[in-house]
Structure formats: structure tokens, C-alpha cells
Automatic annotation (TrEMBL):
This is ATP-binding cassette domain-containing protein. The keyword Cell membrane applies. One of its GO terms (molecular function) is ATP binding. It comes from Rhizobium terricola. Pfam families: ABC_tran. It comes from the Bacteria. PROSITE patterns: ABC_TRANSPORTER_1, ABC_TRANSPORTER_2. Residues 9-237 form the ABC transporter domain.
């Protein structure tokens, strides 16, 4: 467990069985930091994120966010924002509306809410694009829209599941930089599932390494990259040209 003073997310003794897959997580995720969740395919990264978001309910244990027990709460009632690989934009709604949905799913937006949407779109470089439909946007633009939607929600914890996976390398680097900037500006706690060690190097201060549905290592980034004595970590790091 890395040194920390407060935890934004706490999974206490959380157990879950899905089919034949079994999971056990007990961890505290540091407030205001970027924590990367990494590990081999099928190790439980998305499941861990789903337990925090509320898309999965633990069989045992408790989930706390910002000190509050959210174990029984539906996803919409948890203080988190989500950004996925495909960004979950509604294809029949324009960009402004898609971002506005982050504030109120019923789209009852006040003037202040609308101003907040506009300034988020400016922040991610999409000003003037408000009326465009998702299908007319590039992958990078859709990703920017997803970040804007997370910004307007103003939730303290942002969960990202492979947010850069669909992007080509140049765009990916630009989006990684944008996420780093947004994190510096907002101080949100970010939990990032990624397959790419470069994302860990560039973004994360802490790392949760999963194996077989359990936490094999929870460490600072520097300690994580020094643990090449652990074969699974050596394999993960070795996959990229660091
Ligand atoms: N609803 C379910 N029913 C049965 N098995 C499931 C269910 N959801 C996930 N699993 C299994 O649990 C394991 C972990 O899945 P999970 O998606 O969390 O892994 P992951 O680390 O995110 O994988 P990847 O890197 O491939 O996306 C996998 O073996 C998966 O098949």
C-alpha cells in the first residue's frame, strides 16, 4: 500500500463471483492521484472498475467513496464519472446535448449549466462544434467530448476504462497530455484501466497490479517498475519499449 493520507475509494474485503471467475479486492485508492489498474487480460481490471462504479455488486465486503458507504447505491447515485473506450455518446444527440447529459440525464439545464457545458467544450478544444453529431466526429473529438462530459459532472472520482485504446499513436499521446492537464487543473481522483505501460509512466502515481482476480501489488509507480523480479510485472513492462 503506498503512503497516503486520505483515500477516495476504499474496497474493504470485497468478494465477488461471476460464473467461474472469483475476485477479491481490499485496497484504498489515494485521493487526488491517478491510480493505474493494470494486469493480464482477464485479471479483473474492468470488474474492479465496475465494483467502484456500481455496475457490479459485491457478494461480500463494502465499497466506500469519499468516506461514504456506497455499496447499496445504484451507479447513478455514486459520486463518479465514467469514460470508456467507445465514449458512450448518444448518436442521435448533438455534442452539446451529449455533454449536457453529464449534468442532468433529463437535460433540465440551467443557464449556469449551459455555461458550464460551453466552458468544458472550450477546455477540451471543441468550441464551435456544439451542433455536430457524434458520427461526424473523429475518434479524438469523441474522446474530447467524453472528457468534457466528465468535467461538467464535477464528481470527485473519474473512472476510465481503456480510454485511449481506439486511438492511433499520435492522437493517443495528445489525449494522454490532455488528461494529465485536466487532472492537474481539477485535482480529481482518477482510476485508469490501461494495457499500456507508457500510460502508467506518463500519468500514474500509484499502480494496482491484478492477477487472477486479486491485487498482486499495490505500489507507487517507481516501486512498481522496480519489481521486475515478479514475472507477471516483468512481462507487462517488457511488452513496451520503455
Ligand atoms: N458476468 C460474467 N460472468 C462470467 N464471467 C465473467 C463475467 N464478467 C467477467 N467475467 C470473467 O472474469 C474475468 C475477468 O474479467 P475482466 O473483464 O474484469 O478482466 P480484465 O482484466 O478487464 O480483462 P481485459 O484486459 O481482457 O479487458 C474474465 O475471465 C471474464 O471472462
Amino acid at each position: 500500500m503506498p503512503p497516503e493520507t486520505r483515500s477516495a475509494v476504499e474496497l474493504e474485503d470485497v468478494g465477488l463471483k461471476l460464473g467461474s471467475a472469483e475476485f477479491y479486492f481490499d485496497c484504498r485508492i489515494a485521493t487526488g492521484q491517478i491510480t493505474a489498474i493494470v494486469g493480464p487480460s482477464g485479471s479483473g481490471k474492468s470488474t474492479l472498475l465496475n465494483l467502484i462504479a456500481g455496475f457490479e455488486q459485491p457478494d461480500t465486503g463494502r465499497v466506500r467513496i469519499e468516506g461514504e458507504d456506497v455499496t447499496e447505491r445504484l451507479p447513478a447515485a455514486r459520486p463518479v464519472s465514467l469514460v470508456f473506450q467507445d465514449n458512450n455518446l448518444f448518436s442521435h444527440l448533438d455534442l452539446f446535448t451529449n455533454v449536457g447529459l453529464g449534468i442532468d440525464p433529463a437535460l433540465r439545464l440551467t443557464a449556469a449549466d449551459r455555461a458550464s457545458v460551453s466552458s468544458a467544450l472550450v477546455r477540451v478544444g471543441l468550441q464551435g462544434q456544439e451542433k455536430r453529431m457524434p458520427a461526424t466526429l473523429s475518434g479524438g473529438e469523441r474522446q474530447r467530448a467524453a472528457f468534457a462530459r466528465a468535467l461538467v459532472r464535477k464528481k470527485p472520482v473519474v473512472l476510465l476504462d481503456e480510454p485511449f485504446a481506439a486511438l492511433d499513436p499520435g492522437l493517443r499521446a495528445a489525449m494522454v497530455d490532455l488528461l494529465a492537464d485536466l487532472h492537474r487543473e481539477t485535482g480529481f481522483t482518477i482510476v485508469l484501466v490501461t494495457h499500456d505501460p507508457q500510460d502508467v509512466v506518463r500519468l500514474a502515481s500509484d499502480v494496482l497490479f491484478l492477477e487472477h482476480g486479486r491485487i498482486a501489488l499495490h505500489a507507487t509507480r517507481d516501486v512498481f517498475f522496480s519489481r521486475t523480479d515478479l514475472p507477471a510485472i516483468a512481462a507487462f513492462i517488457g511488452e513496451s519499449a520503455l
